[in-house]
Amino acid sequence: MTAQVIALMAAIQSLMAVAPDAIAFSYKAKGWIDDMFSLGLITADVQNELHARVTEICRAALNGETPKHWQVEPDPA
Amino acid sequence: MKLKWDKWLYGLGSAFIGGGAGAVVSGLTNMGIAPDTFNLNTTAGATKVLIAVAVNFLLVGGFSMFFFLKQSPLPPEATGNTETITKDASRLSLWLLCGFLSVGFIGCVTPDRLETGGAYAASATQSAQPELYAIDASFDMAYSALDATFKYERDNRKLLWQLSPRIKKGLDKIRKEAGTVRDDYALARTVYLENPTPAGLDELRMQLGKLTNANAAALAVIETKGLQ
Fold first, then answer.
1. CB B177 within 8 A of CB B150
2. Which has the closest alpha carbon to B103: B131, B144, B128, B65?
3. Chain A residues 32-71 with a CB less than 8 Å from chain B
4. pLDDT tens-place string over residues B125-184
5. DSSP string, A22-44
6. How close are the terminal C-alpha atoms of chain A, in Å?
7. Do the Cβ atoms of B101 and B212 come closer than 8 Å?
8. By the 8 A CB rule, do B92 and B55 touch?
9. How many angstroms separate the Cα of B169 from the Cα of each of A14, B33, B44, B103?
10. Is the pLDDT of residue B203 over 70?
């Protein structure tokens, strides 16, 4: 029982830790849906930010830079 | 032939409600993005919040429902594996993102929507690139989702390994594939920017499709604890 409670708390803690990423992602998703489904103007700032983000991803890829969490690492002991 | 209507209808309903409920959060975020329009301080603002939530619910719930119908057009026969339908229903949210991202293939962005001065707008040196904008935006979304999944697993590896070693093993397979797709997209984009051709766009769409599939597969690994 104690082990289960500790596991549950650890799971909650991990979810709390990922919450900021999830919130940031939800904002990005909202912006993407607005761009795709509304008829409004896509501002120069929005275009330039997207262009810079994708260009940076591509630059890193072409230079062989891979984030650690994208790499295959040894299994935990 | 006897069909399992009850399970099928249950799955269909679950798909609609589950998909729609997820979208409610998206509707509420309007208050953070445009507080002047969407707020709870005025009747007009609160009405707009509720409309946004309702529209998001119907739209995403509808998408979710149609994806369910695509996967399970008719109820299964009364004999056989009873787990299939419930797994289909619970997996719909994963394919939902996949479906939304495929909008990048259609291209809902028109040249007149791109404000002058932006990287994708028409200028003295280039014509407007609405297709590239739609593909880049979808790539950015799929990449961010995949990145968040990989990061989540790495940050919580010890805990998830105890839960099921299959999670890391499943994601490791996708890591290899996704890394290659990212590199191929980068190369295809560089080629396209130097020489914008319809064939170049097709290549970008193909790589986007692969990344979208990798993203759906990664989410499925998390959801099923690597059992699929």
1. no
2. B131
3. 32-33, 35-37, 39-48, 50-54, 57-59, 61-62, 66-71
4. 889 999 999 899 989 988 998 998 999 899 989 988 988 999 999 999 999 999 999 999
5. HHHHHHHHHHHHHHHH--S-B-H
6. 25
7. yes
8. no
9. 20, 38, 51, 31
10. yes
Token pair belonging to B142: 């799929």
B183 and A CB contact within 8 Å: yes
Taking residues B94-123, report their average pLDDT. Answer: 72
| B128 closest CA partner among A42, A77, A73 | A42
Structure letter (DSSP) for residue B23:
H
The one-letter code for the residue type at A10 is A
Q: How far is B42 from chain A (nearest CA, A)?
A: 23
CA distances from B39 to A27, B56, B97 (A): 17, 17, 27
Closest to B104 measured CA to CA, from B183, B205, B201: B205
- Three-class DSSP labels, B40-97: CCCHHHHHHHHHHHHHHHHHHHHHHHHHHHHHCCCCCECCCCCHHHHHHHHHHHHHHH
CA distance B113 to A45: 13
Q: Are the C-beta atoms of residues B189 and B207 closer than 8 Å to each other? A: no
Across the interface, whether the CB atoms of A26 and B25 are under 8 A apart is answered yes
Chain A interface disruption, residue of B133, B161, B169, B225, most A CBs within 10 A:
B133
The amino acid at B151? K
Buried b (16+ CB within 10 A) or exposed e, B133-168: bbbbbbbbbbbbbbbbbbbbbbebbeebbeeeebbb
Nearest alpha carbon to residue B184 among B164, B168, B206? B206
